[in-house]
Design goal:
The relative contact order is 0.14. The chain has an eight-stranded mixed beta sheet. The radius of gyration is 19 Å and the shape is globular. By secondary structure, the chain is an alpha/beta fold. The protein has helices at residues 9-20, 36-39, 65-75, 94-99, 120-130, 154-158, 162-166, 170-180, 205-219, 224-233, 237-252, 256-283, and strands at 2-5, 30-34, 54-58, 80-85, 88-90, 107-114, 149-153, 184-194. It folds into two domains: 2-194, Spore Coat Polysaccharide Biosynthesis Protein SpsA, Chain A (Alpha-Beta Complex), CATH 3.90.550.10; 200-291, no CATH class. The longest helix has 28 residues, at 256-283. Helix 5 packs across helix 12 (256-283) and helix 9 (205-219) crosses helix 12.
């Protein structure tokens, strides 16, 4: 299990405690990858009691989350490689569900449930980033896989180009698999709870950089006229994205109250993302890939 750690040590401590409580030391390897230069010494976040099956990897300064994941994937040796993030707490039974995820699919994604959020800003980021992964998960048809709660088969990762594994951007990997007909599935028993608390840049500037890097990666090889058309279409993205998020949540019949209160911040988020996509299409990635969360 690979934990990409890009937050403060308190979140990592809670994540690790929840995981260690149910992970069998004899069969489960936990790999924590963290940029100590930016986020503090990894050892300070370790539990006071030594954990035998935890491996710590200090990432190079300035490492993005995709780079943290890549380092963890390279260090993992098991047939099943799970990717988590340090702001997520695994629910009871998560390790058992991960171990039983099956070997006929390349990846099994789980659900990302909200934590005890108290601010509308936190709810807004949850709905924008993870709302499509909330329970109940789809029972049929293709479903999106989250980046912070997914179990991969080793053979599927080994089949990827080395450059993709080194800087693992799951959105491109999952999309490529879907287009190629590579089998994946979702499992509602594989649940994590996101417990982060976000700041203003997480809803303003960060979505812009993520959207710009995403658009540049997706459309950068296309012709200038094509990218210009896509950039113009991105003018409608804030409304399209907002309606998609709201519709997906309402269809599940839960969390309608927090959703309604979070709409203003959600509009800020999706507008920032859409401006980033426009910039990525017209001007390329710039420095945005270095800001990828």
């Amino acid at each position: 299990m690979v934990i990409a750690s890009s937050n403060d040590g308190t979140l990592l401590e809670r994540c690790l405690d929840a995981l260690v409580a149910q992970a069998d030391p004899g069969s489960v390897e936990i790999i924590i990858v963290r940029d100590a230069g930016r986020f503090g010494d990894v050892r300070r976040a370790e539990s006071t009691e030594p954990v035998q099956n935890v491996q710590w990897i200090e990432a190079p300064p300035g490492s993005t989350v995709p780079l943290l994941r890549g380092l963890g994937i390279a260090a993992a040796r098991a047939d099943l490689v799970a990717l988590l993030e340090d702001d997520c707490l695994v629910a009871p039974g998560w390790c058992r569900a991960a171990a039983n995820s099956g070997n006929r699919v390349a990846a099994v994604g789980g659900a990302v449930e909200p934590g005890p959020y108290r601010r509308t800003l936190d709810w807004a980021i949850y709905f924008c980033e993870y709302g499509r992964f909330m329970l109940p998960v789809p029972s049929a048809g293709p479903a999106p896989l989250p980046g912070n709660n997914v179990v991969y088969r080793r053979w599927a990762l080994d089949d990827l180009p080395e450059t993709v594994r080194t800087e693992f951007r799951e959105v491109f990997v999952h999309t490529a698999w879907q287009l190629a007909g590579v089998p994946t599935r979702v499992d509602g028993s594989l649940v994590v709870h996101n417990v982060n608390t976000w700041s203003l840049p997480d809803v303003t500037s960060d979505p812009y950089h993520h959207g710009r890097a995403y658009a540049a990666g997706r459309f950068g090889a296309r012709s200038a006229p094509f990218r210009t058309v896509v950039a113009l279409l991105a003018l409608a993205l804030p409304v399209v994205k907002l309606l998609r998020i709201v519709g997906g949540t309402v269809s599940r019949g839960r969390l309608i109250g927090p959703l309604a209160l979070a709409v203003p911040w959600m509009l800020v988020f999706v507008t920032s993302w859409s401006l980033g996509e426009m910039a990525g299409c017209l001007a390329g990635p710039g420095e945005s890939p270095a800001r990828w969360r």
